[in-house]
Amino acid sequence: MQPSDVVFSKRRWLLNAGGLAFYVLDICTDVALAVQYFEQKQYVWSGMTVMFVMAAVVVTQIFSCAWYWEDKDENNQTALDMSKRKIAVLHVFVLGINMRYYYLLKEGFSVCWKTKQAAAANIHHKLFWMATDLSMLKLFETFLESAPQLLLQLYIRGYNEWPLLQTWSLVDYWHCLRKSLPNVKDKSSRLPTAVYLIYKVCTITSIILSYSLYVTLSIYSTVGITIIWLLGTTWVHLLQTNFCSSRCLELLYRAVVGVILIFSFFNAKGKNTKEVMVVYYVFYSLVCVTAPLLLAFLKPEMRTAVFLWTVGGLIYGGLLFGLLSLHMYYRFLHPPTSNANEENGLSNQSRDDEADEVDGPRQETITNKRLKTFLQP
């Protein structure tokens, strides 16, 4: 029997099946919303809704196709045993994510539901590797489409939606990544996942609500959000990430991480980022604290409005509980690695690179780089 921390369980299979259903449902509801705005002659809202959907679709298909091309076996065959042209055609018809779900659920079903004997550890790790790539693509899709879409709908319709999809995509990616790395000794998964989920739910909720207040105050606040994206992208660029095999794809990746950094901290280099995280959340806290205050100060008529008190309470409460959960997670629940060098500030990626150089001149594959890049969420 395999250790529980490396088993691709039936629960994980069901979660991925549910993820496919939510993915399809999310796209359908966004398309329906765009059509609704168009029929109401609200062409700007309809166009922006379509723009967010298309941006996410195009970016995720590009990365998915590139990863399939890069993931080759010793016989130079792609992961799906298809030609590059056929894989490209499938992605042109926007089937990349669906195809990844299909193969993950198909192979996972054979391991979880059909096979009576316990599968080898490498098979379970392979499934988690597949799930990690899929989760990362979903992470890109979430913060390129769902998060901006949520902010747009909050501005148009009011405060009746919550960013659970955004937070779950981060938690799901974090969980799959840690399971796919055999040198990470996960503690009991349930409590760390719960605390990490609370941290992400609270912090992302408070920052999105804060942005919505700024946009309510002035539509030109979107310029400030754009500047935050530029700063995040610049920071990732200065880190000189090597996540992708091509220069153009690497630049696109850095731009996407810049979008994620608008809403949540994301370690783009896989090394100890305690100081950077502190700076990020100091700025984040400043944004959250000042949003309700500025709205109340610049619009005195809003001071007695129930919605301002409600949203302000959610922002401050989310900020407090989110940062408290963040501290608890990294203080007590953050999984250690099997190498004590992490305590000295060395990244897992650096240790693995050193091991590859000692073993021989062969460089690690791009697949392993993707899996090892984000050791700390």
From TrEMBL:
Membrane-spanning parts: 20-38, 50-69, 89-105, 219-239, 251-268, 280-298, 305-330
Signal peptide start and end residues: none
Sequence ranges of Polar residues compositional bias: 340-349
GO CC field: plasma membrane
Assigned keywords, A-Z: Cell membrane, Membrane, Transmembrane, Transmembrane helix
Family stated for the protein in its record: Belongs to the XK family.
Keyword Membrane: yes
Chain positions covered by the region annotation Disordered: 340-366
Topology within the bilayer: Multi-pass membrane protein
Short name of one Pfam family: XK-related
InterPro entries linked: XK-rel, XK-related_scramblase
Compartment annotation: Cell membrane; Membrane
Predominant cellular place of this UniProt entry's protein: membrane
Protein name from the UniProt record: XK-related protein
Organism: Nothobranchius furzeri
